[in-house]
């Protein structure tokens, strides 16, 4: 069983650029919450990464609309680029909320979610890299992204549960609930991307 | 006019398994809110039903990806299985929030929404059963699901309106607003499923 | 380069009816917030416009399901009619919240968002009108809708930021946060519609 896409295939290169860019965004978010030395600067750098992601997505869609032959189903290329774009949008939305809500100190759960987002993005990047070679390990990576999403879901649920138990200030509660939910939605979008990648493998097996 | 799918057709059986499983989830949710004797146990049972639903959805998608011929349009099979999966996710999310937010006593509106969810799921189950036979009554059932969604929308809006009028504790307000909205979104997903089913009928009329 | 669709083409006329109806809804919303003389009546009129939009969408989907030949890709017709329907749903949802939450006085940011929604809807209407003629200016209009969405995003973010700085009553904060977010989502849906329209142009260039 050989790869779907020759290594020089343009779609493959474009998807790999997108996942590298997503990793950069996820690393910035994790560093932002871990060090918390200059969140506003981190947020602006994430916004730049997100703009770059928009333009990469736009290039893929343009190329897709102009291509008669594609390395895998058109609707999967479209869905994958949308899901990858959404991941970065949610990383950016998370960072924005941290700054906009004047968070004083990130919680352990927020840091853990940022860690899980980075792990998911790295796994998706490894999966996309395989589109140019052996497809077999892709399913395994997809299972890993699913497990990371389940873990993020658990962390988010427990964080919100603790929030309702401990936080007496409703405005603080609103802020943190939304930060946790936005972080968790980034891992949902990683799972969406993994599901699309798994479909591509099954169809081409 | 005969059915689209012979009765022994695998996709038909799989969809029927899914809707039966959804009904089980909807019944558990309704019982949970009506009796409210042991919500934590009800929630765990709903979670089991939701896991079974995930695995049924996964089976349909796998079969779809491996099938060259399908009883109706591939994208409709995909969209229908996603919509059915979403219904169960929202039933589970509703139950989770009731437990996580330590609800003391379910409101009449929450019980009514659970009743409307169950009715919608039963109607979708009857519709899916017809894919193996006469298609004509399907449109009627779809109209019924739409009416149930409109009713759920009205109940939800009035419940939230009452909440803003009467509930002075903002944290309680946040909890109940989200419970009502999550319940209502389950009926939205029933409507999505009904719309897909109606398309299938029109295309094959 | 000629138009995709002859001027008498039914799909074109139906889409134009939808965008005219959307403009009516957007104008009612803007007037509602600007004058604020009788918000309940404005809201009921917007609801009527939204019902008309539902029925126009339903007609397009029915026609689509029964047509063998379509002026552009079936999935784009489906996606465009859904996006247009969503715009009107969110205009209606915004108006509903203003009434349901007993808003005393609209804020400048809410008025500005309603203005940006109307501008976006007018631009989409101009774009749809071009489907029957020269396609070249469509891309330009799509860029304009994107710019309006960015502007709405900025206004919404600043409004919410100000809300968290100034509003000490958490229940008021919940209400206004949701009104701003609902208004902003209407411009997101305008952007979705513009992106679909741009795809149609690229595919047919």
Describe this structure in words.
The structure is a homotrimer of 205-residue chains. Chain A has a single domain, classed as Methane Monooxygenase Hydroxylase, Chain G, domain 1, CATH 1.20.58.220. In chain A, 82% of the residues lie in helices and 0% in strands. Chain A is built from 6 helices and no strands. The termini of chain A are close together. The mean pLDDT of chain A is 92. At the B-C interface, helix 5 and helix 6 of B face helix 2, helix 3 and helix 6 of C.
SSE diagram, text form:
The structure is a homotrimer of 205-residue chains.
Chain A (H helix, E strand, L loop, with lengths): L9 H26 L3 H28 L7 H27 L7 H23 L6 H30 L3 H34 L2
Helix pairs in contact in A: 1-2, 1-3, 1-4, 2-3, 3-6, 4-5, 4-6, 5-6
Largest interface: B-C, 13 and 13 residues
User: How many E-type strands of chain A?
Assistant: 0
Can you tell me the overall shape of chain A?
globular
Main pleated sheet of chain A: none
Weakly predicted, low-confidence segments of chain A: none
Instruction: Give the name of the CATH superfamily of chain A.
Output: Phosphate transport system protein phou homolog 2, domain 2
Q: Please, what is the average pLDDT of chain A?
A: 92
Rg of chain A is: 18 Å
Class derived from helix and strand content of chain A: mainly alpha
Distance between the termini of chain A: 8 Å
The number of helical segments of chain A is 6
Strand content of chain A is: under 5%
CATH class type of chain A: Mainly Alpha
SSE order of chain A, one letter for each helix or strand: HHHHHH
């Amino acid at each position: 069983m050989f790869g779907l896409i020759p290594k020089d295939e343009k779609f493959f290169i474009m998807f790999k650029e997108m996942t590298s860019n997503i990793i950069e965004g996820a690393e910035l978010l994790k560093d932002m919450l871990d060090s918390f030395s200059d969140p506003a600067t981190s947020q602006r750098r994430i916004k730049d990464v997100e703009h770059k992601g928009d333009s990469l997505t736009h290039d893929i869609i343009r190329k897709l609309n102009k291509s008669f032959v594609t390395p895998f189903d058109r609707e999967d290329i479209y869905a994958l680029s949308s899901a990858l774009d959404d991941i970065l949008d949610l990383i950016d939305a998370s960072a924005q909320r941290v700054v906009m809500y004047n968070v004083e100190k990130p919680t352990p759960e927020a840091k853990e979610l940022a860690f899980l987002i980075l792990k998911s993005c790295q796994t998706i990047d490894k999966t996309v890299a395989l589109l140019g070679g052996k497809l077999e390990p892709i399913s395994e990576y997809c299972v890993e992204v699913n497990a990371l999403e389940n873990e993020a879901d658990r962390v988010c649920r427990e964080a919100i549960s603790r929030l309702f138990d401990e936080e007496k200030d409703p405005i603080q509660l609103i802020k943190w609930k939304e930060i946790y939910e936005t972080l968790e939605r980034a891992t949902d979008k990683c799972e969406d991307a993994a599901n699309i990648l798994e479909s591509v493998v099954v169809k081409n097996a």
